[in-house]
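Q: Fold this one first, please.
A: Sequence and structure below.
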Amino acid sequence: MDALIYRTIEERRHAPDLPRRTDVLSRLMSGGTDGEHLPPAEIRDQIVTLLYAGHETTATSLAWALHEIARSPETARVAARAALLEDTAYLEAVVKESMRRHPSVFELTWTLTEDVELAGFRLPRGATLMPLIGVVHMDPAHYRDPHHFRPERFLDDSVPSHAFLPFGGGVRRCIGANLAMLEATEVLQVILSQRAISTHRPRPEKAVCKSLTIAPADGAQILARVLSAIEQTL
């Protein structure tokens, strides 16, 4: 991966239209502070962060959403109707419920900048805390019937902000959260307005860690049938 990124950086450096290009890599290479350009190593770090935190997580969440829709005919029916009616509120609820049931990462990593007392424990500055997103998302104190995939809970239930952590929490919440939700909702709308989603494998796939994210072990295999003209007009 590093070899590919550094090779791409070097090729882009000689592009005659570099100052006019608007892609992220070109902007990173054209930017900088005090007129100085970012070194290749820093550009590489930014690109890796963008790939893993900005794309891999959203793609994984969409895979889980389609995985769940395919195994719930009722959810598939309601989601398809929402897509045709451009009901983004329901589709966003589908994405959120997917993120609740299958967070891209299971835990956060926080490093304390000062001494803290938590649940009777005195924790020193510099200690690392790892809040478990996966445990919080399955807590029946916050989610009724937490093991059931039910997007409606994000429409008719009061889900406290501290109990929904796919983008982290506090002042360090993911800066790309709104873009990720917009992107995932739009992708679902396009897919479900054109394809009927089902599966020939009713048993859920196991969750495995692939690179940094927790993904369906078999890639969220689904069946996608083209909607008929009548189905597309409701």
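Q: Good. Now the second chain.
A: Here it is, same layout.
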Amino acid sequence: MARHVVYRCELDHQVRWRGYTPCDGGISVHVRAPSLGQAQQLMAAVAVGDGKRSDWVEHTEHTAGDGLWVREALDERVLDREHATRVLMEALADQRLRARLATLPACRVGGVPVVVCVPGDAVDWVLGQHDRHGALIVAAAVTNHHAWWNVLLPADRAAETDLSVAGRLDEIGLTDPEATLDDWMAATDCAGLVLLTPRPAQATPLEDATEDDPFAGCHAEVQKLHDRLLTELETTSDPLREAELRTRAHEL
């Protein structure tokens, strides 16, 4: 499965580029650097243990205003995505639409990402970019001047929006591994809210499991050290120190 890595350009921050991984429940990787190239190098250094870089899909994010972040994949279809972005930005020139989207629940790193898609993109590829916390807007160009979009959101946060629910992914037939954006667009109208399919329930661990684990105390100490490293990460402004801390946290 592809590992998605995002580089967000934050113009109001002293160190402009923020690299991060959309994280589904675990510990996300974050770096900061003054240029995109340096952010890519830092991410490669601190996330080396998370799979081969050849398995990564890298994206850039740029602000569209009002807390919206347009995300483009740096892949072989970058020109098609640039065209889709132009169509999307034309649609977002409508202040009423932008204000409506800005009220959606934010993702873990803040704001609402808008993923620029093109025909043939796999639904699983889009799902891999969702952190199962806030909203993920999925957008594509239908014509040179018309954009289609849906919002992907956990079911327990649907009440926070005023969008009409198109259905859950499984209800509209989008859980097939071969499903693509084309299937999604055929199944839903523009401006719909699509809910994530609930995950299978996890088995409840036995209450006395830790009593049988001779390393339980060691695990707790490692977690405490990990938490201290993350606390320091939040306060440091030195990108090299941040990279060092990320590496140490990942090694734990």
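Q: Anything worth noting on the second one?
A: The chain has a mean pLDDT of 84.
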